[in-house]
Amino acid sequence: MDTRGQVQKAIDAAIGDVNLTLRKEDALPTSDPALVLVGEGGRLDSLGLVNFVVALERRLAEHTGRNVSVVDLVTSGDTIPFDTLGSLRDLLVSRMEG
Amino acid sequence: MLRGVILSDVNLQNLAGHLENDPAFPPVSVKVAPFGQIAQTILGGDPELFGAAGSGAGTDFAILWTTPAGVIEGFRELSEQRDVPPERLDEEVDAFVALAARLCGRARIVFVPLWTAPTWDRGLGLLELRPGSGPGHALLRMNLRLAEACAKIPNLHVLNAPRWAAAAGADALDPKAWYLGKIPFSAALFRAAAAEIKSALRSVLGGARKILLVDLDNTLWGGIVGDLGWENLRLGGHDPIGEAHVTLQRSLKALTRRGFLLGIVSKNEEDVAREAIRRHPAMVLREDDFAGWRINWDDKAKNVVELMEELNLGLQSAIFIDDQKVERERVRTSLPEVLVPDWPESPLLYDQALRSLAGLDGAVAASREDEGRAQMYVSERKRKDAQKTAGSLDDWIASLNLEVRAEPLGPASLVRAAQLLNKTNQMNLSTRRLADSELLAWAGRAGNAFWTFDVTDRFGEYGITGLLGVSLENGHARIVDYVLSCRVMGRKVEETMLHVAAAHAARNRAGDLVAEYLPTPKNKPCLTFLQGSGMTCADGSNVFRWPAGREYSRPAAVRLVLTEATP
């Protein structure tokens, strides 16, 4: 499986982890690149974002065998460098392949 | 849907999500108090969290889960290598328990998980457990004091959080989640905690499993008794397989001492199997350890249903253990209420499989009746054998030498009485549910009287199986609680309880004795009894009356020992 596919699987698994902490009606869909995660209309509140990035780091290690600090992505700058699930995936792929 | 509240010095919002999403019974809805405001929340009694007083939307359970350094200032100082006398830690733990006790006034059940240390923290090495200065020693001391103090408070239960941390392993704590969101624990630990809290709720609320139905061949013993004969079974001796089967039997025997029942569901010739149980010298379990059995060649699912009916237990009370996957699948698919755990192929792993079953947690408020439950069912089996040889029902009841001991509710009977009040569905007039403290308060109120009924017969003790609450009000005596365990239904205990109620009304010169039947989907047996009790009832009404001053005869077959209650 290529890096893009591995990252997508890790993101889907992380969304599954986050859904365990959300009410059923608030559960996030997987594999929807247009899903807005943060910012205007974002589906993750601050706690959800923490849960998501922490879960995603672990899932990326499982699915790609590499340690990627997603936490750094959301804490190092003034803004979060992604908004949708698709833009997050592309960002991660470019970091890992770049 | 049970309503719960979580209080903590750290962010436990994730636990609420895991509890609500855990599919295990009971379903829950959980609110989380703002973290770090434990005392304010408990003392202030925020109606948003706990429901407005008298609204009927009270809190069923609360979880007070804290970090040791967050609530015990002395422990935080000790962890920073400052001198802290142990007595100061004791005082702070006592103050924390006092706060937890206040929480019991806002929730029917309160859980307090033990304090844990980070699993990755190596501490002070050899000095970690040194009395007086070692944080590890201090934590053990604090947890022991916490557990002992909480045990004295009804409805306050300590949970074994260090086990959750062990289950979650090295990932139990997540520093990144801590710094980003003050979330102390990982998802793995929250999952383990949610499962244990659900199990604890089942234990407290009476949804715990009560009986283990076990297979014989290659489960209780090694080999097939019908082929080998009992002399050649692998059981005990210098044989790892035989030793493993004995270990399993010892664990099962220990469960009976905690009040669990055992039953046998086995495809075998009954005579052959029972001979093995009676005669094999290494058998730990004998016939008297089993509440009942179905040993035949019938379908096991059918046998499970029949045996549970015979024991008057619901299928949701049962755990089915069998070495044969096909039998497990048969029972699992046809009787989904029965818990059918996966079972290892190797007998060397049987005992581990048994002892790791969450379904064995059992009732927490173990009363004398719980502990002796297995023996009561064995007595019941013998009782039924006697019934088969007796003549009429009256002859049989007369032959039982029934003694009913009616005593006012007191500290010794409180746990069992509350348990009976909250679990009994069938012979229950009003299906009123009260916590221990609420029941005791009601019984002590002026004009109220509350008896427990302890029943014995020539085969053994049933224990406290009946409850009667009577309130003198508005010129009559109202039966508020009329509760009888199905274990003694149909043995004239019902009439004996009415006799006590009517005598109490007459003695206090009350007017009519009144019993209002409040229907539920399960308490039809109570209505049936009342309709045949001799009490009068206007057409279309659920209110039954017995006229003032008239004696309600005590059944001749029952010997009543009555201690009068003071209204």
Note poorly predicted spans of chain A: none
State the total count of DSSP E strands of chain A: 0
In helices, the fraction of residues of chain B equals 40-55%
What kind of assembly state do the chains in view correspond to? Answer: heterodimer
Main sheet makeup of chain A: none
Examine the secondary-structure arrangement and name the CATH architecture of the largest domain in chain B: 3-Layer(aba) Sandwich
Rg measurement of chain A, Å: 12 Å
Compute the average pLDDT of chain B.
88
Give the uncertain stretches of chain B in residue-range form. Answer: none
What portion of the residues of chain A fall into strands of 2 or more residues? under 5%
Task: Predict the CATH topology of the largest domain in chain B.
Answer: Rossmann fold
Helix/sheet category of chain A: mainly alpha
Mean pLDDT of chain A: 88
β-strand percent of chain B reads 15-25%
Determine the most extensive contact between two protein chains. A-B, 18 and 17 residues
Helix content of chain A: 55-70%
Classified by CATH, the class of the largest domain in chain B is Alpha Beta
Q: Tell me the overall shape of chain A.
A: globular
Class of secondary structure makeup of chain B: alpha/beta
Structurally, the number of domains of chain B stands at 3
Describe the structure.
The complex is a heterodimer of chains A (about 100) and B (about 575). With about 100 residues, chain A is an all-alpha fold. Chain A is built from four helices and no strands. Chain A has a single domain, classed as Orthogonal Bundle (Non-ribosomal Peptide Synthetase Peptidyl Carrier Protein, Chain A), CATH 1.10.1200. Helices cover about 55% and strands about 0% of the residues of chain A. The longest helix of chain A is centred in the middle third of the chain and has 19 residues, at about 45-65. The two termini of chain A are about 20 Å apart. With about 575 residues, chain B is of the alpha/beta class. Helix content of chain B is about 40%, strand content about 20%.
